[in-house]
Amino acid sequence: MFEIDQVLDMRPGVSLKAGGQGMRYLCRIMKKDDYIYYEEPKWFVESKEH
Length: 50
Known about the structure:
The protein is an all-beta fold. The chain has one domain (6-44). The protein contains no helices and four strands. A four-stranded antiparallel β-sheet has the order 1-2-3-4, with no helix packed on it.
């Protein structure tokens, strides 16, 4: 679990990797910007490619 430092943007969005559709949030977490998604009733993030 991570604490969100700041929400930079919020808009309807689609996760192309996970296939979910809902709200997309651009958040600053531990000095890094990343997208998190809310698709009722779940929050998720896309997996990172290695």
